[in-house]
Design goal:
Blueprint: H1 2-69, E1 82-83, E2 86-87, H2 94-213
Antiparallel strand pairs: 1-2
Helix pairs in contact: 1-2
Keywords: Coiled coil
Organism: Effrenium voratum
Protein name: COMM domain-containing protein
Length: about 220
C-alpha cells in the first residue's frame, strides 16, 4: 500500500539522517581531541621557550656584568653579528653575548609564531564546530520532520483500516439482518398460506351452512 510505503520511506530517511549525525559527532569528537593535543603541545612549547629565555637572560646578565667588571666593551662589532643560521667566531666575549641575544630573539619569535598558529588553529576548530553543530541541528530537524510524517501516515493508515473494518462489520451486519428478514418473510408467507387455507375452509363451511339453512 502507498501509505505503508511512505511510512517505510520516512523511517529509512530518519535512520539515514541519524547515521549522518552519529558520524558528525564522531568527527567533532576527534577534532576536539586533536585540538586539545595541539593546545597541550603549544602550552608545553611556550613554557619551554619562556624557561629558556629566562635562563638566557640570566646568563646574559651575568656575562655582561663579568665583561663590564673586566673593562670589556658591550658594543658589538660587525664581525660579532650573527651570520645566517650560525654565528661568526669571535676571539672576544662579545660574540658570545651577541649569540645569546640572538637566541633570546629567536625564542621570542618562536613564541610569537606559536601563539599565532595556536590562535589560527583555535579559530579553525571553532568554525568547524559551529558548522558541524549547525549540520547536526539541521539533520535533527529532518528526523523530527520524517517522524511527524511517519506518525501522520500511521494515523491515516489506522483510520483507513478502522474504516475498512467498520465497513466490513456493517456489511456482515446487513447480511445477517437480510438473512433474518428472509427467514421472517418465509415464516410469514408460510403462515399466510396456512391462514389463507384455514380462512378458505371457514368460508366454505359458512357457505354450506347458509345453503342448508336456506333449504
Amino acid at each position: 500500500m502507498q501509505m505503508e510505503a511512505e511510512i517505510q520511506n520516512a523511517a529509512s530517511q530518519a535512520s539515514a539522517l541519524q547515521k549522518d549525525i552519529d558520524e558528525l559527532l564522531v568527527q567533532i569528537k576527534l577534532a576536539s581531541q586533536n585540538r586539545e593535543k595541539e593546545n597541550h603541545e603549544f602550552q608545553t612549547l611556550i613554557a619551554e621557550q619562556r624557561e629558556m629565555k629566562a635562563s638566557l637572560k640570566q646568563a646574559l646578565s651575568v656575562l655582561q656584568g663579568l665583561y663590564a667588571s673586566q673593562g670589556g666593551s658591550l658594543v658589538q662589532t660587525e664581525l660579532d653579528q650573527p651570520e645566517g643560521l650560525g654565528y661568526k667566531r669571535s676571539s672576544g666575549g662579545q660574540g658570545v653575548l651577541a649569540m645569546m641575544q640572538q637566541l633570546i630573539k629567536d625564542s621570542e619569535a618562536m613564541v610569537a609564531e606559536a601563539m599565532e598558529a595556536d590562535q589560527t588553529a583555535q579559530k579553525s576548530f571553532e568554525a568547524f564546530a559551529a558548522e558541524t553543530n549547525d549540520a547536526v541541528k539541521a539533520k535533527k530537524d529532518g528526523i523530527e520532520k520524517q517522524n511527524e510524517q511517519k506518525a501522520a501516515q500511521a494515523v491515516l493508515l489506522a483510520e483507513t483500516s478502522d474504516a475498512k473494518r467498520l465497513t466490513s462489520s456493517e456489511i456482515q451486519q446487513l447480511l445477517t439482518i437480510k438473512e433474518q428478514l428472509h427467514e421472517s418473510c418465509d415464516f410469514l408467507l408460510a403462515q399466510f398460506g396456512v391462514r389463507q387455507k384455514a380462512r378458505g375452509e371457514e368460508i366454505e363451511a359458512l357457505k354450506r351452512a347458509v345453503s342448508i339453512l336456506s333449504g
